[in-house]
Amino acid sequence: MIASDLLQPETGWARPSSVRLPAPPPRERGLLFRSASSASRWFGRPDLPQVFPVIHLNPRLFWGWLFFASRLMPWGRLPATVREKAILRVAWRCRSRYEWGQHVEIALRVGVRDQDIVTVTRAAEDIADADDRLLMRACDQLCADKLIDDTTWQALAERYSRRDLIELVMLVGHYEMVAGVLINAGIDVEPPVERKLQALYRRLEAAGANGA
Quick one: 162 exposed, middle or buried, by C-beta within 10 A (0-12, 13-18, 19+)? Predict the structure, then answer.
């Protein structure tokens, strides 16, 4: 049960009326998948998040996706805090509560501060930090139009290498795609992640950060 969502998109989180693609129980996940489930430790998780067995409902796509996804997270070359802020912006814009909850937990673990997470939810022009404002603007333009405007691109190119620019664009596109799968699957955030999400909301409420 969700105690509260102190932060949520203006139109709420996107969710179907019921769970459409539940994660199958472990015994139904196949020997190869079960053998590889220790991969959750790559992502710093003791237990496998539901996103993996859900996407594994299509094994032909799953294994190629897993390899590609791991090149972006956790083994991407962008700074982890930049990566997680970008993913959170995508989750927020796509209204994917599952992706949001998962990456709030990861973001906090790699050093993103509570107030930084609040910043991710703000309009880009209202963000004081120049680097965060630029990153959020680039994410917004990619999500909305796929084209980063020339001014924003030039500012990015002054901060990131060409390799990193390709990774950033692919990161945003990848997590938009995953958000679509997660939203339409209708799965809920796992209880340990939900507890950390609610702990964040309690801290923000106590600090009054939601009105910052």
Answer: exposed
From CA 181, how far away is CA 4, in angstroms rounded?
24
Cα separation values, 201 from 44, 79, 179, Å: 22, 25, 22
Q: Is the distance from CB of 8 to CB of 14 less than 8 angstroms?
A: no
Asked if residue 39 lies in contact with residue 66, where contact means CB atoms within 8 angstroms, the answer is yes
Q: Where are the beta strands (DSSP E) in the chain?
A: none
With a CB cutoff of 8 Å and minimum separation 6, the contacts of 204 are 6, 7, 114, 118, 210
Q: pLDDT tens across 18-76, in order?
A: 999 998 887 777 766 666 666 555 555 667 889 999 999 999 999 999 999 999 999 99
- The full set of domain ranges for the chain reads 76-211
Among 10, 18, 33, 13, residue whose Cα is nearest residue 101:
13
Class of domain 76-211: mainly alpha
- Name the pTM for this structure: 0.91
CA distances for 93 relative to 5, 25, 29, 81, 125, angstroms: 16, 31, 32, 18, 16
CA distance 70 to 66: 6
